[in-house]
Queue: 2 jobs
Job 1
Amino acid sequence: MKRRKLALATLLVVIGAIALVFAGAGAGRTNASAFKVAWIYVGPHNDGGWSQAHDDGRLYVQKMLGSKVATTYKENIAVGSQFNQTVASLAAQGYKMIFATSYGMITKQLAAKYPNILFEQATGTDLSKNLAEYFGRAEDTIFLSGMAAGYASKTGKLGDVLAFPIPEVVRHANAFALGAQYAHPGATVRVVWTHSWFNPAAEKKAAQSLAAAGADVIGQNVDSPAAGQFAESKGLPWVGYDSDASKFAPKSWLTASVYDWGVYYLKRVKEAMAGTWKSGFYYGTINDGFTKLAPYGPGVSAAAKAKIAAVEKKMKNGTFYEFQGPLTDQAGKVRVAKGVKMDVLKGGTNSLYGMNWFVKGVIGSPKG
Amino acid sequence: MRISVEQRLRRPRWLTVVVPVGSVVFAFLVAAVVLVATGHNPVSTYRQLFDAAFLQNQSIDQTLIVATPLAFMGLAAAAAFRMKLYNIGAEGQMYMGAIFGAAAGLYFGGRGGPAPFPIAAMVVAGMAGGAAWALISGVLRAFFKTNEILTSLLLNYVAGYILTYLIFESESYWRQTKGFNASVFPTGKPLPHSAVWPGWTLHVQGGLTFPLGAFLAVAAAIVLWVLYKLTRFGFEATVLGDSPRAARYAGVRMRRKVLAVMGVSGAIAGLGGASQIGDFSHSLDGDPNGLQKIGYGYTGIVVAALGRYNPFAVVLIAFLLGGLENAGNTLQGPDFPAGLVGVIQGIILFSALGGEILSRHRIRVERRTKRVPAAPARAPEPAA
């Protein structure tokens, strides 16, 4: 009996202590008048790649606008009913603007259901009154990173870890291959699909199989640095994507095409706050500062750096474009005639957003 | 002092209430330590959690979005587990239900006819798809004594690949192929308007919409309850689960029961898949970052266990867990990492499941008393 009483007393004291410690500690922290903006990520916010680049953009907006905005993010959100639930919850909390950072997240119907929220979606093409789309010419900088890979390759056999067999990824893989071939004539790029944007285990396995097939440089169009960590363990040079991930593979790191989403985010959030926001399709460029090359790793020679810089300069003044004909496909058929420049949206499968074929020298199927 | 855990011979009524409530209170206390250690205020966190799950405007509306599939998956698991038939494949059966349901909706939706017909067709097709997928494991178990845990689990992956294939790697009937957008990113063909499932909106809490699926889940719970409580079928299945040998002596046909129960379980999971399409996404979602990422089918097993396979308890637990899930999503953000949300959800689930042991067993603390010469030998414990 005595023991039970003692236990009861202890419990009461513990509860009392907890209550005392937290009594009075307020909950509300956010400024009520702040403009509320949310970002939705398909993977973790610190994935070392795609989502992290977006989160850097969010932090930039928060830093530049200070207490005038309240930003948040939702990470690891699955497309479908969980996504609907997330948007409903953000709407209920008074968020006025939502950046969805993966295509397939927001449909026109969903945007129409929340007419008072401004939606922006990365990498897509659906437009409506309150749904805008944004992305950028990563293919330019991926070409440059492909050059770095080509110069680093001894055998001319490269590998590329890819997410989904869709035009965005196909065009990036093509740009990588064209860059590698520019630096190393006759180079081939073998590709492996992971069927996921963020799946470190599958990405590592893909890199393993590429190395086993003889690739001596690994590139990627997926979100995590897992392929790089594998490359580091094998001493193979590695080209990343989306973010500067050199810390995950300091010796293997060559460079990567990275995005600076913050510039666009800041502009759009300001427009939304001023009431001048309009829906539209934005395709950022290297001249906007939207895409750039990450700092080089130790494996890029001075000669390679100079050559890459020369091409970058030509890209900036418009005298070089990697997707200018003649471009031949895997079977050797000329797809884009000499002198013709591929457009972003126009031209069906010969547009950047419709490209479903690999250029010559890529080994693997563009259908997955 | 000696501490022993022994099975309870009788389970007092009050325990079925006190144990779960006590477990949750215990979980909140443990989670509070984690919250304090990570620099969060437990009181305001819990307040936010309940607000987001059940109290603030439109919170129940959002909770139902998660609770509906969890109820289907929990019922699917409970239906089979009752007979000690461990169907771990509700996940894959849900995909199959989604595939079949979407096909029916796309086919019948655009063809006129009476309004409820396309929706009824989706319900039937979804159940058929799920049941058919479950019966693969059922047949293997009934005729070849293959372990259904393994086959049903592995078939989940197969179903996932089929889902990805239909949208990402083929120009299938389910995939949107018209228009330029369709070539940019593969998406499912949207359901015609007449095949979109209706919802009933109550004007409380700033709008509370009950999806058709929520009603179907409750209906499925009633059917399951009647089946197991009031019919010979259910009685035989229960006996078969508890003692296969006794059931065989009594003339229960083992194979038929395995097939029937697997079919019922799969049909409920398939119905959940059709509800995902009809109620929520309105097109087949093949994205591994979509339906395949959430894992409702696996969470359903936890729901079933917490509900002790009682259909009505399963529905209630699905609602509570749906709230927890919804709150977790609302809570996470820059100040509150998603991992921490997972830790708190994990502590709550772990305590709730762990607490179960106290309702079935009791802990006896024996104090060693001074040996008295006349003390009789300890009476044998009652056989467990």
Job 2
Amino acid sequence: MSVINITDLEKIYRTEEVETVALNKISFEIKEGEFVAIMGPSGCGKSTLLNILGLLDDLDGGSFKFNDVEVSGFNERKRADMRKHNIGFVFQSFNLIDELTVFENVELPLIYTGIATAERKKMVDEVLDKIQIAHRRNHYPQQLSGGQQQRVAVARAVVNKPKLILADEPTGNLDSRNGNDVMQLLTDLNEQGTTIIMVTHSEHDSRYTHRLINMMDGQIVTQNIKV
Amino acid sequence: MFKNYFKIALRNLWKNKIFSAINIIGLSLGMTVCIIIMLFVQYERNFDNMHQKNIYRLDEVQSWEGMVEPQEVALSMPPMGPSLKNDFPQVKNYTRIFPLEMAGLACNDKKVFLKNVFCTDPTFFELFDFKLIRGDRKTVLTQPNSVVLTEESAIKLFGTEDPLGKSVTTHNRRDTLHFTITGIMENIPENSHLQFNGLYSLSSIFKHGEDKEWGSNYMVTYLELSKNANVKLLESKFPAFLKKYMGNDITKEYKLFIQPLNKIHSASANITHDYHNYRKFDGTYTDIFFVIAIIVLVIACVNFINLSTARSTRRSKEVGIKKAIGVSRNQIIFQFLGESVFLSLVAMVLAIILVQLFLPFVNDLSSYHLIFSFLDKPILLLFVLLGTIFVGIISGIYPAFYLSSFKPIKVLKGVTSKGKNKSFGRNTLVVGQFASATFLIIATIFVVQQLSFIRNKDTGFNRDHVLIISGAYKNYQKLKNALEESPLIKGVTGSSQKLGNNFHQDGINFKGTGPVRNYASSCVWVDDDFISLYKIKIVAGKNFTEEGNGREYMVNESLANELLKDEPKKSYEFLIGKRFWGNEDTLSTIVGVVKDFNFNSLHSKIETLSLGNNKKGGFHDVSVKIDGAKTKEAIDFIGSTYKTIIPNFPFEYQFLDEHFEQLYEADTKVSKVVTSLAIIAIIIACLGLLGLASYSAENRIKEIGIRKVLGATITNVMSLLSKDFLKLVLLANIISWPIAWFAINKWLQNYAYRIDMSIWVFILAGFTSLLIAIIAVSSQTFKAAIINPVKNLRTE
């Protein structure tokens, strides 16, 4: 079964003077349980692609099926709803809310999916245990190291058990030891069945994945390289 | 979910203490002002609301020949009420009031003096819904020699005894009257324009049908109209009504109009001889205060809007994350609205405390009894609460929509739009704020100037250390002789009315070289030393003499000019020795012309005036000039002398200066309110500027660092950061100047004597607002400018 199936996807940025084709009719499929890395030089369109895959951005042409549902015509509310239940995000710059503690940050997605308080507590504790950061549950993001922050961010991305995790250079702001920890965490999640798509610049990180999609100038160069 | 909102809101407030403080303090100051002004507005607007009937007061416009300007008066002729009821079906009822300044009531050995006792028709309690505790509303005032006392007066006279049916004696000028107490009424509420301590039945005083005579205006008449009566239509029939009873020429001199009861308190600013209108206050000012209070609140809300949007980048990450995890835009809007409502509620609590703290002070300043109590008026809490929520929503709605519009991809990548449009909106609001604040500064300066001008303007007579004792009448001469013996007393004189009112008008007759001419002018009887005690200048002829009593008149320049209209080439000297008389044709003449002096308030032009030297029957008002260095001794002396000569009446006095202060009470109130509001508006606007400047410094910290590395000095950096704000303040000045000029000019029209509007005031106000803004802004920019640039750049 495919989680993502896109055909002839197009994304064009227009300013007053220039029209830039960010994604030029690309097509690929991602199956459930895959761990895929998207690589390519800066400006090749990989982040744009990730945003579209994450339903944060619209496409200008082509078809996009998420879980076999065509989502290209979805409005913002439908997309938000789809995101809420199916997708977790991990960003390069962690993006934890500074005003909330570790526990509260991880709890955030559960609040908006309407899960009861007691159940939420259980779920958050479970995931915090898994990433071994439970002892820091009442700390604020600034009190943690970069690696710890990113692990909290991953915990937040997986807490409501999404089908898909989108990670945008998750180790970009980390040193190699912390980076490896985060990659190991993602690998573990993948082994438990979560589909992961990761944009990265790092050859090293890409080795954790099953498959490599290589991009250049808005087009896919190769997409079937087994790692 | 709410808990989460609440947590984030609280932690954000706490983390950005300065911004939170600016928002909350600014907002609560604005709310405090608003609540206090609304209490005042409510007090003003609720005057006379205890009466249910459709009641109007009958007023006149008088324009007799010889008067400088026509005047509106609250008086009417006694038969007008009954005749109107008789002639017009829409006039359902009437009641008339003939006020007595003071009544001394005695029962057994006890005697009390009651101020303001009204002689009135039996219909009084039919029109007015004043509560009667004892007695029958329909009959309490039907019989002659009936008296209804207020509870307070009854207790003064009888203590705990039952007063009903008791008899009391009173002496009036001519005879002794015996009254029976037929009713007791509740004390008059504070919000009644009629304030009195007792009511006599009118028939006790007018025994011989005096109240049927047309011609003199000395009553206050109230009419009850039928519910749907057309007032304009009724008024249009008044000229014919007057002609019917008083002849065809009457409409040249009189016009009648009616005022609804609920407008008497607030819309009688131009009505003179309006002696029973408690705390009369021009409703226009109430409206102006209302508007200014709203402006101050809006200025505070603008701070909130500006600071929230300016600091939006701080919250953008939160919005981005929430959107990424699937929170809908509506939920985010709701969250931010909730936050601003929460903030308003915090400000409200603070405002309620501030109101409680300030109110005694405000009451003291304004001599009002404003009460702010949720226990007395639970509805008040509802109003304040709803108002607060409204303020929260109004000030939160723009930031909420703005913040919730962030695209998660952009904000999460750290791209924040620093679009010009956003700061354009903010700048507009800042300009609006400062334009209002500058407007208020300008207004304050002019209002204070005008009032000090009035206080210090040479009125043409000297009122220093003069006190007035009222009601001496036949004891005048005895009192004068006794007082003059002491060295503490520099002079004593008498007059039929005191200075500081428009004097009553009367007909006068003048015979120059042609036929006798009839005019009307303000008239006052005075003692022969009146002119010299008040140091009024004589421009032609000579002063009154003792021997001339009853035969001498002096006129003021305005009247002299009027009298000389037939003889345009003649000087004032021409008038000296010419025949001049009032109601009775005596052999009196004009002996002198006095320089025009302001016997009325400076709101009015100087009217034509005749002063008659006539001490027949004594005088109502005794003017005593005392030794200014020994005020206390002098007053004690006057008091004891008074008691030996007039033991039947209490000794009461008023300094003429105080009386003149009262004339400008409304003006003083306006100036105090405008001044305080201006100060508060400036404070709030500056708080906002402080916040924006600090934000701007913080936002441009990298730029500042780079500039400093490249060699910019502290001054360079400060001027870079301050320049933009100061431009806005300048623009605000340019906008507010013409508006202020227009508004002040309009206000000054209320005064017959007014200051010139100097451009320097505008420039001064401009500099003041600029200076305050510079101080506020540079306190923030200086901090940014002195930071070591390396530090700024490294934290990037």
